Amino acid sequence: MKIGIGLPNHVAGVAGTVVVDCARRAEQRGFDALTTIDRLIYPSLDSITTLAVAAGATSTVDLVTNVLLAPLYPPVILAKQLATLADASGGRLVLGVGVGQRPDDYHGAGNEFDSRGKLLDDAVTIWRRVWAGEPLDGETALCPAPVTIPVLFGGKGKPTLRRVATVGDGWAGGAVRDYETQESFTDEIRARWHAAGRTGRPLMQTSVNFALGDDSLVAQGRRNLAAYYGNKPDYAALNVADMVSSPRDALDTVRAYRDLGFDRLLFHPAVASAEQVDRLADAVL
């Protein structure tokens, strides 16, 4: 199983230079991937721009959106941005997408919250056409093609099952450890994948939040998670309680997801510091 680490773009008030430091350190320490979390109405850093910066600071690690709230963005423009990032990074982009649960993000983007599922379905069709080099208006392609970008879908509902089985490359699990539910969901994905006549197998990716260090650092991580998920107090409390807070817990999490057959585990830092990269590397690599 591959192990990646998040860039702290979602931590409120994070400095962009910290993201660059974390990206370089993560590649030096041997992580397989760098990932970002997406949100609009929050004092965070843009997910795609952060990965573009990370692409310029690294040369080998995969670049993963986990997840990008794709319905927030105009699909044609997003298709070109993602194709550019994939090409400029040497094909390192893995696109995890979801619809999210925050109405304020959609209001801020000028999109209908209740239409987010349809917006995502329509967007995927447009992306595939753009990345294949098909013109959308007239006879001109939008970007050099073909572009290969694996698309993983987040969520736990029936629409996610349908998308993964029919148009996706795999599943992007959420950041709360629920091993029994996740195992049954991955079994369902595999069954639907084969029922749809797909060859090969779907990629299985999941994630977890972490903060490693002394009690004050762990407490800071929990405060940051509580703030980030503050629009849903019950879910915020769940994330805070589930946060990985010790090297032993981190290693046990790796072993658990490896035993469940996941292809990649992503650790999202709840504290914005390059030191977190080293602490996690010492624990799990």
UniProtKB/TrEMBL annotation:
Protein's recorded name: LLM class flavin-dependent oxidoreductase
Keywords tagged on the record: Oxidoreductase
Ranges where the Luciferase-like domain occurs: 1-240
Pfam families: Bac_luciferase (PF00296)
Taxonomy, superkingdom: Bacteria
Entry's Gene Ontology molecular function annotations: oxidoreductase activity, acting on paired donors, with incorporation or reduction of molecular oxygen
Annotated Gene3D superfamilies: Luciferase-like domain
Entry-linked InterPro entries: F420-G6PD/mer, Luciferase-like_dom, Luciferase-like_sf
